[in-house]
Amino acid sequence: MPAPDSSRQPGRPRGRSGPRGSQRSAQKPSERAKHAEPARFAAYTLLRAVDDGAYANLEFPAIIRRHRLDSRDAAFATELAFGTLRMQGFYDAVIERAAGRPTSKIDAGVLDVLRLGAHQLLGMRVPAHAAADQTVGLARTVSGAGASGFVNAVMRRVSERTRDEWVSEVVPEGGATAALAVEYSHPEWVVSALRGALLGHGRATAETVDSELRALLESDNTPAKVSLVARPGLATVDELVDAGATASETSPFGAVLDGGDPGAIPAIRDRRAAVQDEGSQLLAVALATAPVADGVPRRWLDLCAGPGGKSGVLGALALEAGADLVAVEVSEHRADLVRSTLEPVAARSAEADLDLEVRTADGREIGEAEPAAYGRVLVDAPCTGLGALRRRPEARWRRQPGDLAQLGPLQRDLLRSALDAVAPGGLVGYATCSPHPAETTFVVRDALKKRDDIEVVDAREYFRDAAGEVLHDLGDGPEVQLWPHVHGTDAMFFTLLRKKA
Ligand SMILES: C[S@@+](CC[C@H](N)C(=O)[O-])C[C@H]1O[C@@H](n2cnc3c(N)ncnc32)[C@H](O)[C@@H]1O
C-alpha cells in the first residue's frame, strides 16, 4: 500500500491569492522528499508514455495497476497527469520564464517533472512546500541528483507567483488568438479553428465571439463527467440510477456518474449499457426516429462503426423497430470491438429473425456495391476530434492543421457513398465530433454539389431531451451543432439528409 500522502491536505484554491513565496518549506533540503511518491511517479510515467505516442486514456489504467495505487491515490494521479497534459502549453510558458531558457533546451524527462510540479502549484490544491519537495524528490528518482538542483530552483521561482500573476506575466498582449492560446493552453491553430467554428455555425457574432470562445476553451480544460447510456430496450436509466448514477436531463437514455468505476455497474458489464457522451446518444436517436417514407428498406447502415458506441444505440433501436443493421468498419481490430459491443443485441436480433452484421470493409465502396439498399445510414466520419478535447487530454497537442486536409477527401467520399447507399425516401445522418467547418458544413456542401436527389432536413426537432422537449440553444438549423459549454456534451455536429422519394 502506498503511504498516505500528507502533502495533499485540502488548502486554499490555487492562484486566487497573493504571492506564495512565504509558504515555502522551512525544511532543509536534506529533510525534503528523497524519492518519488507513487501517485506522482505514476503521473510522470504516463507523461513519458504519452511523449512516446501512447494515448493517456488507454494507458493510464495499466499504469495505475502497475503502481498499485489505491482509489484515492489513483484519483490524485489522474487529476495530476491529465490536468498537466491539458495545461502543458501554459505551464511551458511559465517554466520557460522561470528557468530562463526555452523548453527545447530542457531534458524531456526533467521538463515533464517540472510540468507536474507547475500543475500542483498553479492548478491543484497541493500546498506549495509539498509540491516543491515532492517534485524535487521525483526529479531525484527519475533523473538523479544533478537535475534536482535545477528543478528546485525553477519550482521556487514558479511558486513565487500565483496562477493569475503568471497569466499576466506570460500571456502576450494584443494578439487575441495568441494570448488565448497561452492562457487556455491550446495550440494557436486550434483556437483560430474554434473561433471560426463558433462564427461559422452561428453560435457567436463578432461581438460575442471572444466570450463564447473563452467559455469553450475553458470547457476543454474541464474534465468531462462520466456519461452513461442505457441502450434502449436492453437496460433502463433506472438501473443506472440504482447503481449510483443520476438521470441525465439531456438524453432520454442517459445518466451521469459522479464517481466510482462504471465497469462495476452490472448493466455496463453485460454491455446493455455503456459509457457514452450524451451528444452521441442524441444523434443516434435522431437518425433512428426521424420519419422516413413508407416502404424504404428496413435495413440500417452504420458506415464508420468502430469502436461501436453509436452502433450500440442504433442496434438496440433497430431491434425495437424490426430493422436489420449492417455495421461497417475498415479496421479489423475496431470491427472486433463493434462485434463485442453488439453481442447482446445480436442474440436478441437472431431470436427476432433480424440480420445484424458487422463487416470489416471500406465504407467508401458500399454505395456502389449496394445502391439504394438502406433506409437509414449513419456516417460518423473519422475527424480531428476537436469537439472532444476535454476527453483526450493530449489530443490538442497531437493534432496538426494538416490533418484536416488529409481527412477531407475521406469524409466526402464516405458521405457520397452513404448518399448512394440510401434508398429514396430514406435518411443519411452525417456526424463528426468536431465543429470545424472544414469537416462539417463544407463536407456536406461539397457532397451535395452536382446532385439534386437530396434535401436537407431540419434535424433540430429530433434532438429531444429527457423531458421530451427540443434541446435548448440549437441555433438556426437545419443542422445541429452541440457545444460543451452550452449543452455539456462533446461538440458534435449532425446533418440530416433525405433522398427524395
Ligand atoms: C469517429 S470514429 C466512429 C465512432 C463510432 N461511430 C462510435 O460511435 O463508436 C470513425 C471510424 O471510422 C473508421 N473508418 C475510417 N475510414 C473508414 C472507411 N473508409 N470505411 C469505414 N470505416 C472507416 C475509423 O477506423 C473509425 O473507427
From TrEMBL:
<feature type="binding site">
    <location>
        <position position="362"/>
    </location>
    <ligand>
        <name>S-adenosyl-L-methionine</name>
    </ligand>
</feature>
<dbReference type="InterPro" id="IPR006027">
    <property type="entry name" value="NusB_RsmB_TIM44"/>
</dbReference>
<dbReference type="InterPro" id="IPR035926">
    <property type="entry name" value="NusB-like_sf"/>
</dbReference>
<keyword id="KW-0489">Methyltransferase</keyword>
<feature type="domain" description="SAM-dependent MTase RsmB/NOP-type">
    <location>
        <begin position="201"/>
        <end position="500"/>
    </location>
</feature>
<feature type="binding site">
    <location>
        <begin position="304"/>
        <end position="310"/>
    </location>
    <ligand>
        <name>S-adenosyl-L-methionine</name>
    </ligand>
</feature>
<keyword id="KW-0949">S-adenosyl-L-methionine</keyword>
<feature type="binding site">
    <location>
        <position position="329"/>
    </location>
    <ligand>
        <name>S-adenosyl-L-methionine</name>
    </ligand>
</feature>
<keyword id="KW-0694">RNA-binding</keyword>
<dbReference type="Pfam" id="PF01189">
    <property type="entry name" value="Methyltr_RsmB-F"/>
</dbReference>
<dbReference type="InterPro" id="IPR049560">
    <property type="entry name" value="MeTrfase_RsmB-F_NOP2_cat"/>
</dbReference>
<dbReference type="GO" id="GO:0001510">
    <property type="term" value="P:RNA methylation"/>
</dbReference>
<dbReference type="InterPro" id="IPR001678">
    <property type="entry name" value="MeTrfase_RsmB-F_NOP2_dom"/>
</dbReference>
<dbReference type="GO" id="GO:0006355">
    <property type="term" value="P:regulation of DNA-templated transcription"/>
</dbReference>
<feature type="compositionally biased region" description="Low complexity">
    <location>
        <begin position="1"/>
        <end position="10"/>
    </location>
</feature>
<dbReference type="InterPro" id="IPR029063">
    <property type="entry name" value="SAM-dependent_MTases_sf"/>
</dbReference>
<feature type="binding site">
    <location>
        <position position="380"/>
    </location>
    <ligand>
        <name>S-adenosyl-L-methionine</name>
    </ligand>
</feature>
<dbReference type="Pfam" id="PF01029">
    <property type="entry name" value="NusB"/>
</dbReference>
<protein>
    <submittedName>
        <fullName>rRNA cytosine-C5-methyltransferase</fullName>
    </submittedName>
</protein>
<dbReference type="GO" id="GO:0003723">
    <property type="term" value="F:RNA binding"/>
</dbReference>
<dbReference type="GO" id="GO:0008173">
    <property type="term" value="F:RNA methyltransferase activity"/>
</dbReference>
<keyword id="KW-0808">Transferase</keyword>
<feature type="active site" description="Nucleophile">
    <location>
        <position position="433"/>
    </location>
</feature>
<feature type="region of interest" description="Disordered">
    <location>
        <begin position="1"/>
        <end position="37"/>
    </location>
</feature>
<comment type="similarity">
    <text>Belongs to the class I-like SAM-binding methyltransferase superfamily. RsmB/NOP family.</text>
</comment>
<dbReference type="InterPro" id="IPR023267">
    <property type="entry name" value="RCMT"/>
</dbReference>
